Amino acid sequence: SLPTVFMITPTYARLAQKADLTRLCQTLMHVRNLHWIIVEDSDSKTPLVTRFLKRCRVKSSQLNHTTPAKSLPPKGSHNRTKNRGARQRNVALDWLRETYKPGDVTGVVYFGDDDNTYDIQLFEEMRYTNKVSIWPVGFAGGLKAEGPICENGKVISWHVAWSPGRKFPIDMAGFAVNLDIILTNNNARFDPFGEVGYLEPEFLSNLTTVEELEAKADNCTKVYVWHTQTRKPRVHNEGKVPTSIETKK
Ligand code: UDP
Ligand code: MN
Predict the structure, then answer these.
(1) Where is this site: Interaction with galactose moiety of substrate glycoprotein (predicted)?
(2) pTM for this structure?
(3) How far is the CA of 245 from the centre of ligand 1 (A)?
(4) Which of 8, 49, 113 to mutate to test the pocket of ligand 1 (most atoms within 8 A of CB)?
(5) 40 lines ligand 1 (CB under 6 A)
(6) Does ipTM come in above 0.90?
(7) What is the DSSP string of 115-170?
(8) 43 is in an annotated binding site
(9) Which atom number of ligand 1 is nearest to the Cα of residue 20?
(10) Shortest CA distance to 39 belongs to which of 80, 101, 87?
């Protein structure tokens, strides 16, 4: 049967959260056999996300885990904000290991942030992943697209400008891992204090080698995911008018 795509999405409360999640839900609705694991960066599951998932017609599981303020790197440190989402992804990986035993289901695990843009073809590219598959990511690393250069399904070099010395110079959105690899490797996890840009390389180094990577998206020549970022909405006229439309739900 068709392998399941487990998509792990950390998310946090902010003005544009529901807009971003709505766009993502309505993309994922077009994908078969997808299980969306949403991990809220909060003390408890928020009513907004609970209600949202009830309406979103995608199979989902709602988890939560707060990034403890005390354990954030010191203010001004470079990795203070960049590694947010790391603990939440680990919670989802632990949930997978608690929920499934190797061999239970055929599947693939993907880390998809809530404000990226996804072509639904991306999910068909990753669906059949033996170990770890890889492809380019638009607008990552200060390039129109950053990613591997591939030949005959294998990675031969990298198109990368930022910190090119990294073993796997790839964005979070640029790879997927077979579910059984996650289930049989307890060290498949992210270091919340890892150096900026080294989260992905460290994660992948524990699981595979560059030689083993499976090149997708037409030998890595196509872009099916973009690292778009939602601008903070400007609501400076709020408070100047008496009535308000309910936006908390
Ligand atoms: N995120 C989170 N907690 C935070 C900040 C971000 O859970 O405090 C989530 C966010 O919703 C997204 C992912 O982590 O799914 C990456 O964050 P963001 O998109 O802000 O990072 P960037 O686009 O700058 O890499
Ligand atoms: Mn983002």
Answers:
(1) 146, 237
(2) 0.95
(3) 27
(4) 113
(5) no
(6) yes
(7) TSEE-THHHHHHHS-SSEEE--EET-TTSSEEEEEEETTEEEEEE--SSTTSSS--
(8) no
(9) 11
(10) 87
The reply to whether ligand 1 has any atom less than 6 angstroms from the CB of 115 is yes
Q: What is the pLDDT along the chain (249 residues), one digit of tens a residue?
A: 899 999 999 999 999 999 999 999 999 999 999 999 999 999 999 999 999 999 999 999 999 999 887 666 666 665 555 588 999 999 999 999 999 999 999 999 999 999 999 999 999 999 999 999 999 999 999 999 999 999 999 999 999 999 999 999 999 999 999 999 999 999 999 999 888 889 999 999 999 999 999 999 999 999 999 999 999 999 999 989 987 777 766
- Please give the structure tokens belonging to residue 64: 């939560």
Short-list 160, 162, 141, 157, CA closest to 215: 157
**Which one-letter DSSP state was computed for residue 2?**
P
